[in-house]
Amino acid sequence: MGAGKTTIGRMLARRLGRSFIDSDHEIEARTGASIPWIFEIEGEASFRRREAEVIRELSAQRGIVLATGGGAVLDPASRALLAERGTVVYLRATVNSILQRTAHDRNRPLLQTADPRRKLEDLTAQREPLYREIADLVIDTGRPNVQSMVQTILDQMAALETARARKAKHRMNEQACTTLNVDLGDRSYPIVIGRGLLDDGALLERHIGSGGGGKVAIVTNTTVAPLYLEKVAGPLRASGREVVPIVLPDGEEYKNWQSLNLVFDALLANKCDRKTTLVALGGGVIGDLTGFAASSYMRGVPFVQIPTTLLAQVDSSVGGKTGINHPLGKNMIGAFYQPRAVIADTATLDTLPARELSAGLAEVIKHGAILDAPFFDWIEQNVGALVARDAEALAYAIARSCEIKADVVKRDEREGGLRAVLNFGHTFGHAIEAGLGYGDWLHGEAVGCGMVMAADLSRRLGLVDEASVARIRSLAEAAGLPVVAPDLGVERWIELMEVDKKNEGGAIRFILLKPLGSPSVNSAPRELLLATLEASIR
Ligand SMILES: NC(=O)c1ccc[n+]([C@@H]2O[C@H](COP(=O)([O-])OP(=O)(O)OC[C@H]3O[C@@H](n4cnc5c(N)ncnc54)[C@H](O)[C@@H]3O)[C@@H](O)[C@H]2O)c1
Ligand SMILES: [Zn+2]
Q1: Own/partner pairs, 259-263, CB within 8 angstroms, 24+ separation
Q2: Which of 239, 350, 383, 407 gets the highest tally of CB atoms within 10 A of its CB?
Q3: Which residues belong to the active site?
Protein backbone atom coordinates (compact mmCIF):
# COMPACT_ATOMS: atom_id res chain seq x y z
CA MET A 1 0.00 0.00 0.00
CA GLY A 2 1.37 3.32 -1.01
CA ALA A 3 4.66 1.85 -2.19
CA GLY A 4 4.22 3.26 -5.68
CA LYS A 5 3.24 0.05 -7.46
CA THR A 6 1.11 1.76 -10.08
CA THR A 7 3.85 4.16 -11.15
CA ILE A 8 6.57 1.53 -11.05
CA GLY A 9 4.36 -1.13 -12.62
CA ARG A 10 3.45 1.12 -15.55
CA MET A 11 7.05 2.00 -16.25
CA LEU A 12 8.15 -1.60 -15.90
CA ALA A 13 5.47 -2.70 -18.34
CA ARG A 14 6.63 -0.09 -20.84
CA ARG A 15 10.25 -1.23 -20.55
CA LEU A 16 9.21 -4.86 -20.97
CA GLY A 17 6.81 -4.14 -23.82
CA ARG A 18 3.91 -5.55 -21.84
CA SER A 19 0.57 -4.21 -20.80
CA PHE A 20 -0.04 -3.04 -17.27
CA ILE A 21 -3.06 -4.11 -15.26
CA ASP A 22 -3.94 -3.01 -11.75
CA SER A 23 -6.23 -5.47 -10.01
CA ASP A 24 -7.91 -2.68 -8.01
CA HIS A 25 -8.79 -0.83 -11.23
CA GLU A 26 -10.03 -4.08 -12.72
CA ILE A 27 -12.35 -4.64 -9.75
CA GLU A 28 -13.62 -1.09 -9.98
CA ALA A 29 -14.22 -1.48 -13.71
CA ARG A 30 -16.12 -4.72 -13.21
CA THR A 31 -18.30 -3.56 -10.36
CA GLY A 32 -18.67 0.00 -11.49
CA ALA A 33 -17.94 1.03 -7.92
CA SER A 34 -14.89 2.50 -6.22
CA ILE A 35 -12.86 0.44 -3.77
CA PRO A 36 -13.85 2.55 -0.72
CA TRP A 37 -17.45 2.18 -1.76
CA ILE A 38 -17.17 -1.65 -2.05
CA PHE A 39 -15.51 -1.73 1.35
CA GLU A 40 -18.26 0.40 2.77
CA ILE A 41 -21.22 -1.43 1.27
CA GLU A 42 -20.02 -5.03 1.06
CA GLY A 43 -17.30 -5.20 3.68
CA GLU A 44 -13.68 -6.29 3.40
CA ALA A 45 -14.41 -10.03 3.15
CA SER A 46 -16.55 -9.53 0.08
CA PHE A 47 -13.91 -7.28 -1.48
CA ARG A 48 -11.25 -9.94 -0.88
CA ARG A 49 -13.42 -12.51 -2.65
CA ARG A 50 -13.76 -10.24 -5.68
CA GLU A 51 -10.04 -9.57 -5.55
CA ALA A 52 -9.16 -13.29 -5.42
CA GLU A 53 -11.36 -13.96 -8.42
CA VAL A 54 -9.79 -11.17 -10.45
CA ILE A 55 -6.30 -12.39 -9.55
CA ARG A 56 -7.18 -15.92 -10.55
CA GLU A 57 -8.21 -14.68 -13.99
CA LEU A 58 -5.46 -12.11 -14.51
CA SER A 59 -2.64 -14.37 -13.33
CA ALA A 60 -3.59 -16.79 -16.07
CA GLN A 61 -2.70 -14.15 -18.70
CA ARG A 62 0.79 -14.12 -20.08
CA GLY A 63 2.89 -11.11 -20.86
CA ILE A 64 1.39 -8.63 -18.41
CA VAL A 65 2.63 -6.66 -15.46
CA LEU A 66 0.04 -7.00 -12.73
CA ALA A 67 -0.19 -4.78 -9.68
CA THR A 68 -2.27 -6.19 -6.89
CA GLY A 69 -3.72 -4.50 -3.86
CA GLY A 70 -1.62 -4.73 -0.75
CA GLY A 71 -4.01 -7.18 0.88
CA ALA A 72 -4.15 -9.62 -2.03
CA VAL A 73 -1.57 -11.86 -0.36
CA LEU A 74 -3.98 -12.57 2.49
CA ASP A 75 -5.81 -15.07 0.32
CA PRO A 76 -3.82 -18.35 0.21
CA ALA A 77 -5.12 -19.31 -3.23
CA SER A 78 -4.07 -15.93 -4.67
CA ARG A 79 -0.69 -16.29 -3.05
CA ALA A 80 -0.19 -19.71 -4.58
CA LEU A 81 -1.26 -18.51 -8.04
CA LEU A 82 0.98 -15.46 -7.97
CA ALA A 83 3.96 -17.50 -6.81
CA GLU A 84 3.40 -20.20 -9.37
CA ARG A 85 2.43 -18.16 -12.40
CA GLY A 86 4.54 -15.06 -12.10
CA THR A 87 7.72 -13.44 -11.03
CA VAL A 88 6.65 -11.69 -7.84
CA VAL A 89 8.25 -8.33 -7.02
CA TYR A 90 7.67 -7.11 -3.48
CA LEU A 91 7.97 -3.34 -3.33
CA ARG A 92 8.87 -2.76 0.28
CA ALA A 93 8.15 0.57 1.90
CA THR A 94 8.67 1.76 5.44
CA VAL A 95 5.73 2.77 7.56
CA ASN A 96 7.03 6.35 7.57
CA SER A 97 7.18 6.67 3.83
CA ILE A 98 3.75 5.11 3.40
CA LEU A 99 2.34 7.56 5.91
CA GLN A 100 3.89 10.46 4.03
CA ARG A 101 2.56 9.32 0.69
CA THR A 102 -0.94 8.48 1.90
CA ALA A 103 -1.44 11.38 4.27
CA HIS A 104 -4.08 13.06 2.15
CA ASP A 105 -5.41 10.05 0.26
CA ARG A 106 -9.05 9.38 1.06
CA ASN A 107 -9.09 6.31 -1.21
CA ARG A 108 -7.46 4.06 1.39
CA PRO A 109 -10.32 2.59 3.38
CA LEU A 110 -8.03 0.70 5.74
CA LEU A 111 -6.27 3.91 6.79
CA GLN A 112 -9.39 5.85 7.69
CA THR A 113 -8.74 5.44 11.38
CA ALA A 114 -7.73 7.62 14.25
CA ASP A 115 -4.24 6.14 14.37
CA PRO A 116 -3.10 5.32 10.83
CA ARG A 117 0.51 4.69 12.01
CA ARG A 118 -0.63 2.02 14.40
CA LYS A 119 -2.86 0.53 11.71
CA LEU A 120 0.05 0.47 9.21
CA GLU A 121 2.33 -1.20 11.72
CA ASP A 122 -0.28 -3.89 12.34
CA LEU A 123 -0.82 -4.43 8.61
CA THR A 124 2.92 -4.67 8.02
CA ALA A 125 3.36 -7.21 10.79
CA GLN A 126 0.56 -9.28 9.34
CA ARG A 127 1.48 -9.03 5.65
CA GLU A 128 5.29 -8.79 5.56
CA PRO A 129 5.82 -12.58 6.07
CA LEU A 130 3.28 -13.28 3.32
CA TYR A 131 5.00 -10.93 0.88
CA ARG A 132 8.29 -12.56 1.68
CA GLU A 133 6.83 -16.00 1.27
CA ILE A 134 6.05 -15.49 -2.41
CA ALA A 135 8.46 -12.73 -3.45
CA ASP A 136 11.10 -13.56 -6.08
CA LEU A 137 12.54 -10.05 -5.70
CA VAL A 138 12.37 -7.62 -2.80
CA ILE A 139 12.88 -3.99 -3.85
CA ASP A 140 13.16 -1.18 -1.32
CA THR A 141 11.15 1.78 -2.52
CA GLY A 142 12.77 4.43 -0.35
CA ARG A 143 14.70 5.89 -3.29
CA PRO A 144 13.08 8.89 -4.95
CA ASN A 145 14.20 7.94 -8.47
CA VAL A 146 11.57 5.68 -10.01
CA GLN A 147 13.67 5.14 -13.16
CA SER A 148 16.53 3.62 -11.21
CA MET A 149 14.17 1.46 -9.21
CA VAL A 150 12.68 0.05 -12.41
CA GLN A 151 16.17 -0.55 -13.76
CA THR A 152 17.04 -2.45 -10.59
CA ILE A 153 13.96 -4.63 -11.02
CA LEU A 154 14.86 -5.34 -14.65
CA ASP A 155 18.45 -6.24 -13.74
CA GLN A 156 17.38 -8.52 -10.94
CA MET A 157 14.75 -10.17 -13.11
CA ALA A 158 17.37 -10.92 -15.74
CA ALA A 159 19.66 -12.43 -13.11
CA LEU A 160 16.78 -14.48 -11.78
CA GLU A 161 15.98 -15.72 -15.28
CA THR A 162 19.58 -16.84 -15.79
CA ALA A 163 19.61 -18.63 -12.46
CA ARG A 164 16.32 -20.32 -13.29
CA ALA A 165 17.58 -21.45 -16.69
CA ARG A 166 20.72 -22.83 -15.06
CA LYS A 167 18.67 -24.68 -12.49
CA ALA A 168 16.34 -26.09 -15.13
CA LYS A 169 19.31 -27.28 -17.15
CA HIS A 170 20.83 -28.85 -14.08
CA ARG A 171 17.56 -30.58 -13.33
CA MET A 172 17.38 -31.80 -16.91
CA ASN A 173 20.89 -33.21 -16.67
CA GLU A 174 19.98 -34.96 -13.48
CA GLN A 175 16.81 -36.29 -14.97
CA ALA A 176 18.51 -37.33 -18.20
CA CYS A 177 19.05 -40.62 -16.49
CA THR A 178 16.93 -43.51 -17.63
CA THR A 179 16.46 -46.67 -15.63
CA LEU A 180 15.30 -49.80 -17.41
CA ASN A 181 14.48 -53.01 -15.71
CA VAL A 182 15.64 -56.32 -17.16
CA ASP A 183 12.80 -58.53 -16.10
CA LEU A 184 14.17 -61.97 -15.24
CA GLY A 185 12.25 -62.91 -12.12
CA ASP A 186 14.49 -63.05 -9.07
CA ARG A 187 17.48 -62.28 -11.29
CA SER A 188 15.96 -59.01 -12.53
CA TYR A 189 18.25 -56.01 -12.51
CA PRO A 190 18.27 -52.33 -13.47
CA ILE A 191 20.17 -50.71 -16.30
CA VAL A 192 20.84 -47.07 -15.43
CA ILE A 193 21.79 -44.85 -18.37
CA GLY A 194 22.85 -41.23 -18.15
CA ARG A 195 25.58 -38.69 -18.43
CA GLY A 196 27.81 -38.28 -15.37
CA LEU A 197 26.53 -41.30 -13.43
CA LEU A 198 30.03 -42.10 -12.21
CA ASP A 199 30.10 -38.73 -10.45
CA ASP A 200 27.34 -40.04 -8.20
CA GLY A 201 29.29 -42.30 -5.88
CA ALA A 202 26.16 -43.39 -4.07
CA LEU A 203 24.66 -44.95 -7.19
CA LEU A 204 27.15 -47.82 -7.36
CA GLU A 205 27.10 -48.22 -3.59
CA ARG A 206 23.35 -48.88 -3.77
CA HIS A 207 23.90 -51.88 -6.03
CA ILE A 208 26.73 -53.48 -4.15
CA GLY A 209 26.18 -56.60 -2.04
CA SER A 210 23.43 -56.00 0.48
CA GLY A 211 25.28 -57.14 3.59
CA GLY A 212 27.16 -53.83 3.87
CA GLY A 213 30.74 -54.65 4.74
CA GLY A 214 31.62 -56.57 1.56
CA LYS A 215 34.76 -55.77 -0.41
CA VAL A 216 34.63 -54.51 -3.98
CA ALA A 217 37.00 -55.83 -6.62
CA ILE A 218 37.12 -53.56 -9.66
CA VAL A 219 38.34 -55.33 -12.77
CA THR A 220 39.53 -53.03 -15.53
CA ASN A 221 42.39 -52.67 -18.00
CA THR A 222 45.46 -50.53 -18.53
CA THR A 223 43.60 -48.16 -20.89
CA VAL A 224 40.49 -47.59 -18.79
CA ALA A 225 42.16 -47.57 -15.35
CA PRO A 226 43.89 -44.19 -15.73
CA LEU A 227 40.65 -42.69 -17.07
CA TYR A 228 37.97 -43.95 -14.68
CA LEU A 229 39.29 -46.28 -11.96
CA GLU A 230 39.74 -43.58 -9.32
CA LYS A 231 36.36 -42.09 -10.12
CA VAL A 232 34.74 -45.41 -9.27
CA ALA A 233 37.04 -46.51 -6.46
CA GLY A 234 37.32 -43.16 -4.65
CA PRO A 235 33.74 -42.83 -3.36
CA LEU A 236 33.66 -46.51 -2.38
CA ARG A 237 36.82 -46.12 -0.32
CA ALA A 238 35.50 -42.88 1.14
CA SER A 239 32.44 -44.73 2.36
CA GLY A 240 34.68 -47.22 4.12
CA ARG A 241 34.75 -50.03 1.56
CA GLU A 242 37.86 -52.05 0.92
CA VAL A 243 38.53 -51.79 -2.81
CA VAL A 244 40.68 -54.28 -4.71
CA PRO A 245 41.67 -52.91 -8.12
CA ILE A 246 42.58 -55.55 -10.71
CA VAL A 247 44.11 -54.05 -13.85
CA LEU A 248 44.50 -56.43 -16.80
CA PRO A 249 46.32 -55.89 -20.07
CA ASP A 250 44.10 -54.37 -22.78
CA GLY A 251 42.91 -56.37 -25.76
CA GLU A 252 40.69 -59.15 -27.05
CA GLU A 253 43.75 -61.42 -27.04
CA TYR A 254 43.79 -61.15 -23.25
CA LYS A 255 40.21 -62.35 -22.89
CA ASN A 256 41.61 -65.74 -21.97
CA TRP A 257 42.17 -68.10 -19.06
CA GLN A 258 45.47 -66.45 -18.10
CA SER A 259 43.69 -63.16 -17.42
CA LEU A 260 40.86 -64.98 -15.69
CA ASN A 261 43.46 -66.57 -13.46
CA LEU A 262 44.99 -63.17 -12.68
CA VAL A 263 41.56 -62.12 -11.42
CA PHE A 264 41.26 -65.21 -9.21
CA ASP A 265 44.83 -64.70 -7.95
CA ALA A 266 44.04 -61.16 -6.87
CA LEU A 267 40.72 -62.11 -5.28
CA LEU A 268 42.30 -64.90 -3.25
CA ALA A 269 45.40 -62.92 -2.33
CA ASN A 270 43.14 -60.16 -0.98
CA LYS A 271 41.00 -62.64 0.92
CA CYS A 272 37.87 -61.75 -0.99
CA ASP A 273 34.98 -63.81 0.31
CA ARG A 274 31.53 -64.58 -1.03
CA LYS A 275 30.29 -61.14 -0.03
CA THR A 276 32.75 -59.50 -2.41
CA THR A 277 31.18 -57.69 -5.37
CA LEU A 278 33.02 -57.74 -8.68
CA VAL A 279 32.73 -54.58 -10.74
CA ALA A 280 33.51 -54.74 -14.46
CA LEU A 281 34.84 -51.35 -15.55
CA GLY A 282 35.56 -51.35 -19.26
CA GLY A 283 34.36 -52.59 -22.63
CA GLY A 284 32.94 -55.95 -23.60
CA VAL A 285 36.21 -57.78 -23.04
CA ILE A 286 36.36 -56.74 -19.39
CA GLY A 287 32.61 -57.25 -18.96
CA ASP A 288 32.59 -60.77 -20.39
CA LEU A 289 35.66 -61.85 -18.45
CA THR A 290 34.63 -60.29 -15.16
CA GLY A 291 31.14 -61.72 -15.41
CA PHE A 292 32.57 -65.16 -15.94
CA ALA A 293 34.96 -64.71 -13.02
CA ALA A 294 32.01 -63.64 -10.85
CA SER A 295 29.94 -66.64 -11.95
CA SER A 296 32.58 -69.08 -10.76
CA TYR A 297 34.50 -67.41 -7.95
CA MET A 298 33.33 -69.18 -4.77
CA ARG A 299 30.50 -70.60 -6.92
CA GLY A 300 29.21 -67.17 -7.68
CA VAL A 301 29.57 -63.66 -6.25
CA PRO A 302 27.55 -60.53 -7.11
CA PHE A 303 28.74 -58.42 -9.98
CA VAL A 304 27.98 -55.00 -11.44
CA GLN A 305 28.68 -53.87 -14.98
CA ILE A 306 30.04 -50.41 -15.67
CA PRO A 307 30.35 -50.55 -19.46
CA THR A 308 32.58 -47.85 -20.94
CA THR A 309 32.36 -48.59 -24.67
CA LEU A 310 29.25 -47.98 -26.75
CA LEU A 311 29.26 -51.65 -27.74
CA ALA A 312 29.27 -52.72 -24.12
CA GLN A 313 26.56 -50.18 -23.22
CA VAL A 314 24.18 -51.24 -25.99
CA ASP A 315 24.96 -54.92 -26.19
CA SER A 316 27.47 -56.95 -24.21
CA SER A 317 26.58 -55.69 -20.71
CA VAL A 318 22.94 -56.71 -21.18
CA GLY A 319 21.80 -60.30 -21.29
CA GLY A 320 24.12 -62.18 -18.98
CA LYS A 321 26.37 -63.91 -21.49
CA THR A 322 29.84 -64.06 -19.98
CA GLY A 323 32.98 -65.86 -20.97
CA ILE A 324 36.45 -65.98 -22.39
CA ASN A 325 38.04 -67.10 -25.63
CA HIS A 326 39.83 -70.39 -26.26
CA PRO A 327 42.64 -70.69 -28.80
CA LEU A 328 40.27 -72.87 -30.83
CA GLY A 329 37.29 -70.51 -30.72
CA LYS A 330 35.94 -67.20 -29.54
CA ASN A 331 33.68 -67.09 -26.45
CA MET A 332 33.86 -70.87 -26.15
CA ILE A 333 34.20 -71.02 -22.37
CA GLY A 334 31.57 -69.19 -20.38
CA ALA A 335 28.36 -69.05 -18.43
CA PHE A 336 25.01 -67.30 -18.33
CA TYR A 337 25.32 -65.02 -15.33
CA GLN A 338 23.31 -61.86 -14.74
CA PRO A 339 24.76 -58.74 -13.12
CA ARG A 340 23.12 -56.99 -10.15
CA ALA A 341 23.04 -53.77 -12.12
CA VAL A 342 24.39 -52.08 -15.23
CA ILE A 343 25.52 -48.48 -14.89
CA ALA A 344 26.10 -46.91 -18.29
CA ASP A 345 27.65 -43.45 -17.96
CA THR A 346 27.53 -41.91 -21.42
CA ALA A 347 30.23 -39.41 -20.40
CA THR A 348 32.76 -42.26 -20.60
CA LEU A 349 32.15 -42.31 -24.36
CA ASP A 350 33.88 -38.92 -24.63
CA THR A 351 37.24 -40.68 -24.52
CA LEU A 352 36.32 -43.57 -26.79
CA PRO A 353 38.20 -43.74 -30.12
CA ALA A 354 35.94 -42.96 -33.11
CA ARG A 355 36.36 -46.43 -34.60
CA GLU A 356 35.12 -48.00 -31.36
CA LEU A 357 32.14 -45.64 -31.34
CA SER A 358 31.21 -46.69 -34.88
CA ALA A 359 31.60 -50.34 -33.91
CA GLY A 360 29.05 -49.81 -31.13
CA LEU A 361 26.69 -48.10 -33.56
CA ALA A 362 26.66 -51.28 -35.64
CA GLU A 363 24.85 -53.10 -32.84
CA VAL A 364 22.46 -50.15 -32.41
CA ILE A 365 21.60 -50.29 -36.12
CA LYS A 366 21.21 -54.06 -35.79
CA HIS A 367 18.56 -53.66 -33.08
CA GLY A 368 16.55 -51.32 -35.29
CA ALA A 369 16.97 -53.40 -38.43
CA ILE A 370 15.78 -56.68 -36.98
CA LEU A 371 13.25 -55.63 -34.37
CA ASP A 372 12.14 -52.01 -34.55
CA ALA A 373 11.54 -50.24 -37.86
CA PRO A 374 10.64 -46.87 -36.23
CA PHE A 375 13.90 -47.02 -34.27
CA PHE A 376 15.73 -47.70 -37.53
CA ASP A 377 14.12 -44.55 -38.97
CA TRP A 378 15.19 -42.63 -35.87
CA ILE A 379 18.79 -43.81 -36.24
CA GLU A 380 18.77 -42.73 -39.88
CA GLN A 381 17.64 -39.26 -38.86
CA ASN A 382 20.07 -38.99 -35.97
CA VAL A 383 23.16 -40.78 -37.19
CA GLY A 384 24.97 -37.45 -37.55
CA ALA A 385 24.28 -36.57 -33.93
CA LEU A 386 25.32 -40.04 -32.80
CA VAL A 387 28.63 -39.90 -34.63
CA ALA A 388 29.15 -36.40 -33.17
CA ARG A 389 28.52 -37.93 -29.69
CA ASP A 390 25.49 -35.82 -28.93
CA ALA A 391 24.73 -36.85 -25.35
CA GLU A 392 20.97 -36.90 -25.73
CA ALA A 393 21.01 -38.90 -28.96
CA LEU A 394 23.45 -41.42 -27.49
CA ALA A 395 21.41 -41.83 -24.33
CA TYR A 396 18.28 -42.53 -26.36
CA ALA A 397 20.07 -44.96 -28.69
CA ILE A 398 21.52 -46.82 -25.71
CA ALA A 399 18.24 -46.94 -23.82
CA ARG A 400 16.25 -48.16 -26.82
CA SER A 401 18.92 -50.75 -27.67
CA CYS A 402 18.94 -52.05 -24.12
CA GLU A 403 15.15 -52.22 -24.12
CA ILE A 404 15.10 -54.21 -27.33
CA LYS A 405 17.84 -56.56 -26.21
CA ALA A 406 16.42 -56.97 -22.70
CA ASP A 407 13.06 -57.85 -24.18
CA VAL A 408 14.60 -60.57 -26.34
CA VAL A 409 16.63 -61.88 -23.43
CA LYS A 410 13.58 -61.92 -21.17
CA ARG A 411 11.75 -64.10 -23.66
CA ASP A 412 14.73 -66.35 -24.40
CA GLU A 413 17.42 -65.99 -21.75
CA ARG A 414 19.44 -69.02 -22.80
CA GLU A 415 19.21 -68.70 -26.55
CA GLY A 416 16.63 -71.38 -27.25
CA GLY A 417 15.63 -69.68 -30.48
CA LEU A 418 14.47 -66.06 -30.50
CA ARG A 419 17.72 -64.73 -29.04
CA ALA A 420 19.47 -65.93 -32.19
CA VAL A 421 17.92 -63.00 -34.09
CA LEU A 422 20.44 -60.78 -32.31
CA ASN A 423 23.00 -62.44 -34.56
CA PHE A 424 21.78 -60.49 -37.59
CA GLY A 425 24.90 -59.63 -39.59
CA HIS A 426 27.02 -61.84 -37.36
CA THR A 427 27.32 -64.96 -39.53
CA PHE A 428 29.04 -62.87 -42.20
CA GLY A 429 30.73 -60.75 -39.54
CA HIS A 430 32.27 -63.66 -37.68
CA ALA A 431 33.65 -64.98 -40.97
CA ILE A 432 35.31 -61.62 -41.59
CA GLU A 433 36.80 -61.53 -38.08
CA ALA A 434 38.06 -65.12 -38.24
CA GLY A 435 39.18 -64.86 -41.85
CA LEU A 436 41.28 -61.74 -41.29
CA GLY A 437 42.47 -62.85 -37.88
CA TYR A 438 40.85 -61.30 -34.84
CA GLY A 439 41.81 -57.73 -34.22
CA ASP A 440 42.13 -56.56 -37.80
CA TRP A 441 38.54 -55.41 -38.11
CA LEU A 442 36.69 -54.57 -34.94
CA HIS A 443 33.75 -56.84 -34.17
CA GLY A 444 31.26 -54.02 -34.81
CA GLU A 445 32.92 -53.17 -38.12
CA ALA A 446 32.59 -56.79 -39.22
CA VAL A 447 28.94 -56.76 -38.09
CA GLY A 448 28.31 -53.52 -39.97
CA CYS A 449 29.54 -55.04 -43.20
CA GLY A 450 27.83 -58.34 -42.31
CA MET A 451 24.46 -56.60 -41.98
CA VAL A 452 24.77 -55.14 -45.46
CA MET A 453 25.59 -58.63 -46.76
CA ALA A 454 22.67 -60.22 -44.87
CA ALA A 455 20.33 -57.54 -46.25
CA ASP A 456 21.61 -58.24 -49.74
CA LEU A 457 21.00 -61.97 -49.27
CA SER A 458 17.51 -61.18 -47.96
CA ARG A 459 16.81 -59.27 -51.17
CA ARG A 460 18.08 -62.13 -53.32
CA LEU A 461 15.68 -64.43 -51.46
CA GLY A 462 12.86 -62.01 -52.19
CA LEU A 463 12.38 -61.02 -48.54
CA VAL A 464 13.14 -57.29 -48.83
CA ASP A 465 13.34 -54.75 -51.62
CA GLU A 466 16.43 -53.09 -53.05
CA ALA A 467 15.57 -49.82 -51.28
CA SER A 468 15.87 -51.47 -47.86
CA VAL A 469 19.30 -52.84 -48.73
CA ALA A 470 20.36 -49.37 -49.85
CA ARG A 471 19.11 -47.87 -46.58
CA ILE A 472 21.15 -50.32 -44.50
CA ARG A 473 24.22 -49.69 -46.64
CA SER A 474 23.91 -45.89 -46.39
CA LEU A 475 23.28 -46.01 -42.67
CA ALA A 476 26.28 -48.25 -42.03
CA GLU A 477 28.43 -45.91 -44.10
CA ALA A 478 27.10 -42.85 -42.29
CA ALA A 479 27.92 -44.54 -39.00
CA GLY A 480 31.54 -44.91 -40.13
CA LEU A 481 31.37 -48.64 -40.80
CA PRO A 482 32.96 -50.53 -43.70
CA VAL A 483 30.48 -51.86 -46.27
CA VAL A 484 32.81 -53.61 -48.72
CA ALA A 485 33.69 -57.12 -47.60
CA PRO A 486 37.30 -58.37 -47.55
CA ASP A 487 38.20 -60.84 -50.27
CA LEU A 488 38.90 -64.04 -48.38
CA GLY A 489 38.19 -66.23 -51.40
CA VAL A 490 34.65 -67.47 -51.84
CA GLU A 491 35.33 -71.03 -50.69
CA ARG A 492 37.08 -69.82 -47.57
CA TRP A 493 34.17 -67.50 -46.89
CA ILE A 494 31.70 -70.38 -46.97
CA GLU A 495 33.97 -72.60 -44.90
CA LEU A 496 34.23 -69.90 -42.23
CA MET A 497 30.49 -69.40 -42.11
CA GLU A 498 29.90 -73.12 -41.82
CA VAL A 499 31.99 -73.38 -38.65
CA ASP A 500 30.21 -70.53 -36.99
CA LYS A 501 28.85 -72.03 -33.80
CA LYS A 502 25.29 -70.95 -34.51
CA ASN A 503 24.93 -73.53 -37.25
CA GLU A 504 23.02 -76.71 -36.70
CA GLY A 505 22.84 -79.77 -38.92
CA GLY A 506 24.88 -78.64 -41.89
CA ALA A 507 22.89 -75.84 -43.58
CA ILE A 508 23.94 -72.34 -42.56
CA ARG A 509 21.05 -70.60 -40.80
CA PHE A 510 21.06 -66.91 -41.62
CA ILE A 511 19.24 -64.22 -39.71
CA LEU A 512 17.63 -62.24 -42.51
CA LEU A 513 15.16 -59.40 -42.86
CA LYS A 514 11.51 -59.78 -43.81
CA PRO A 515 10.93 -56.88 -44.18
CA LEU A 516 13.29 -54.23 -42.75
CA GLY A 517 12.46 -54.10 -39.03
CA SER A 518 11.68 -57.78 -38.52
CA PRO A 519 13.75 -60.95 -38.62
CA SER A 520 13.43 -64.14 -40.57
CA VAL A 521 15.63 -67.19 -40.02
CA ASN A 522 16.48 -68.95 -43.27
CA SER A 523 18.99 -71.06 -45.04
CA ALA A 524 20.04 -69.93 -48.49
CA PRO A 525 20.68 -71.76 -51.79
CA ARG A 526 24.37 -71.85 -52.56
CA GLU A 527 24.11 -69.82 -55.75
CA LEU A 528 22.36 -66.94 -53.98
CA LEU A 529 24.98 -66.98 -51.24
CA LEU A 530 27.75 -66.93 -53.85
CA ALA A 531 26.06 -64.02 -55.61
CA THR A 532 25.93 -62.08 -52.32
CA LEU A 533 29.59 -62.79 -51.59
CA GLU A 534 30.70 -61.73 -55.07
CA ALA A 535 28.63 -58.56 -54.97
CA SER A 536 29.86 -57.65 -51.50
CA ILE A 537 33.53 -58.18 -52.23
CA ARG A 538 33.25 -56.27 -55.52
N1 LIG B 1 28.34 -60.84 -23.72
C2 LIG B 1 27.75 -60.47 -24.83
O3 LIG B 1 26.55 -60.65 -25.00
C4 LIG B 1 28.57 -59.82 -25.87
C5 LIG B 1 27.96 -59.17 -26.94
C6 LIG B 1 28.75 -58.50 -27.87
C7 LIG B 1 30.12 -58.50 -27.72
N8 LIG B 1 30.69 -59.16 -26.69
C9 LIG B 1 32.13 -59.17 -26.50
O10 LIG B 1 32.54 -57.84 -26.26
C11 LIG B 1 33.90 -57.70 -26.68
C12 LIG B 1 34.03 -56.45 -27.47
O13 LIG B 1 33.71 -55.37 -26.62
P14 LIG B 1 34.20 -53.89 -26.94
O15 LIG B 1 33.86 -53.57 -28.33
O16 LIG B 1 33.71 -53.05 -25.87
O17 LIG B 1 35.78 -54.04 -26.94
P18 LIG B 1 36.88 -53.80 -25.79
O19 LIG B 1 36.40 -54.21 -24.49
O20 LIG B 1 38.10 -54.43 -26.29
O21 LIG B 1 37.06 -52.23 -25.82
C22 LIG B 1 37.53 -51.60 -26.97
C23 LIG B 1 38.74 -50.70 -26.68
O24 LIG B 1 38.30 -49.50 -26.08
C25 LIG B 1 39.04 -49.28 -24.86
N26 LIG B 1 38.14 -48.54 -24.01
C27 LIG B 1 37.11 -49.01 -23.28
N28 LIG B 1 36.45 -48.00 -22.73
C29 LIG B 1 37.07 -46.86 -23.11
C30 LIG B 1 36.83 -45.50 -22.86
N31 LIG B 1 35.76 -45.09 -22.17
N32 LIG B 1 37.66 -44.60 -23.38
C33 LIG B 1 38.70 -44.99 -24.14
N34 LIG B 1 38.97 -46.26 -24.43
C35 LIG B 1 38.15 -47.19 -23.92
C36 LIG B 1 39.38 -50.65 -24.41
O37 LIG B 1 40.44 -50.63 -23.51
C38 LIG B 1 39.73 -51.31 -25.73
O39 LIG B 1 41.02 -50.94 -26.11
C40 LIG B 1 34.23 -58.94 -27.45
O41 LIG B 1 35.04 -59.76 -26.68
C42 LIG B 1 32.88 -59.60 -27.69
O43 LIG B 1 32.97 -61.01 -27.76
C44 LIG B 1 29.93 -59.80 -25.77
ZN1 LIG C 1 27.88 -58.37 -31.92
Answers
A1: 259/289, 259/324, 260/289, 260/292, 260/293, 260/324, 263/217, 263/219, 263/289, 263/290, 263/293, 263/297
A2: 383
A3: 299, 321, 363, 405, 415, 419, 423, 426, 430, 443
Task: For residue 426, give the ligand nearest its CA.
Answer: 2
Secondary structure E strands in 231-294: 243-248, 277-282
Please list, in sequence order, all residues whose beta carbon lies within 8 angstroms of the beta carbon of residue 465, skipping any fewer than 6 positions away.
Answer: 459, 515
Contact of 256 with 324, CB cutoff 8 Å: yes
Of residues 115 and 234, more confidence is placed in 234
- Residue type present at position 265: D
CA 375/CA 229 separation, integer angstroms: 34
The binding-site residues of ligand 1, defined as CB within 6 angstroms of any ligand atom, are 221, 223-224, 227, 250, 252, 255, 282-286, 288, 308-309, 311-312, 315-316, 319, 321, 331, 348, 351-352, 356, 359, 443
Q: What is the pLDDT of residue 352?
A: 96
Lowest-pLDDT choice from 101-110, 189-198, 400-409, 419-428 = 101-110
**pLDDT tens track for 460-497:** 999 999 999 999 999 999 999 999 999 999 999 998 88
> Which range among 145-154, 334-343, 421-430 shows the weakest confidence by mean pLDDT?
145-154
Let me know: does 344 contact 304? Beta carbons within 8 Å: no
Distance 75 CA to ligand 1 centre (A): 62
**Nearest ligand 1 atom to alpha carbon 442:** 15
**How far does residue 495's CA lie from ligand 2's centre (Å)?**
20
pTM of the model: 0.71
